[in-house]
Amino acid sequence: MNVFRLKQDICEIGQRIYNRGFAAANDGNISIRISDTEVLCSPTMISKGFMKPEDICLIDMDGKQLAGHRKRSSEALLHLAIMKARPEVKSVVHCHPPHATAFAIAREPIPQCVLPEVEVFLGDVPITQYETPGSQSFADTILPFVHKSNVIILANHGTVSFGETVERAYWWTEILDAYCRMLMLARDLGRVQYLGHEKTKELLDLKTKWGFTDARLQPGMENCDICANDVFRDSWAKAGVERKAFDAPPPAPTAAPATSNDQEALIQAITERVLAALQSK
User: Fold this and answer.
1) C-alpha separations of 88 from 84, 114, 164 in Å
2) CA atoms of 192 and 109, how far apart (whole Å)
């Protein structure tokens, strides 16, 4: 493993989030796991757009700093909580993308069934409860959602995204912020048009075919309304999340109730089977 190259990767992504306006001043933090027990992370009190490889810290999985002349990020516990819950995750990116963070401040759920790319790459995006950043309680707010999404909105704070590389971890945040901006622009034009249940189901089928997972396809969600944010709806009240700015999507079509003729035919079929069984004895 080329540790210096991984430090350069952190610096490059830091520059990208700074240039995109996702991290003002010394906002944000980035990490990469280099072994089962060691993680590289960005330091505190430095602009993410101007980091150098020698600025990057080395910490253990409990947050203890092992190396580096700068102090490690104060929010390293958030990164470690994700890595402990998802061992396959190698990198975590936390920042404050303005459009997604606006949803975090308003605690407005991200509408689904609008943009094909978002359905395929993101799916439903949760919003956590608010806790003071830097604490273990803050880190633990992601635990109810970490297995169901690769990007999470942190209430009144920002976003955190994660993946197998630092670039992939960053991608989810960039996709989310672009989508949130599009939603705001569309609402200013009048309203958001939803794709509908069947067309979204086609996108989820493609998602499965391409090897992506989606919480709406996990066991226990077979009968969910895939456009209604049903995956995380149970967490809304506790986190103060409420749909205010965007209309709810149209409800999924329900199966037509059985007619009286259907019921009579079913009763007749059952009766005939019972009689046939009695006669055979």
Assistant:
1) 9, 30, 7
2) 14
> For the chain, how many structural domains are there in total?
1
- Asked whether 116 and 196 are in contact (CB, 8 A), the reply is no
* 81 neighbors 142 (Cβ within 8 angstroms): yes
Eight-class DSSP state of 54? G
CATH of the domain at 216: 3.40.225.10
Residue 276, C-beta contacts closer than 8 angstroms, at least 6 positions apart: none
The residue behind tokens 């989820």 is: 204
Task: Please measure the distance between the N-terminal and C-terminal CA atoms of the chain and give it in whole angstroms.
Answer: 74
In one-letter notation, the amino acid at residue 98 is P
Mark out the alpha helices in the chain (DSSP H runs).
3-19, 76-85, 98-106, 116-121, 136-140, 166-189, 197-209, 236-239, 260-279
> Are the C-beta atoms of residues 13 and 166 closer than 8 Å to each other?
yes
Q: How many residues does the chain have?
A: 281
Amino acid identity, position 69? H
**Is the model's pTM score more than 0.85?**
yes
Q: What is the pLDDT of residues 198-240, one digit of tens each?
A: 999 999 999 999 999 999 998 889 889 999 999 999 999 999 9
Range of the domain at 241: 1-281
Question: At what angle are helices 166-189 and 3-19 packed, to 10 degrees?
Answer: 10
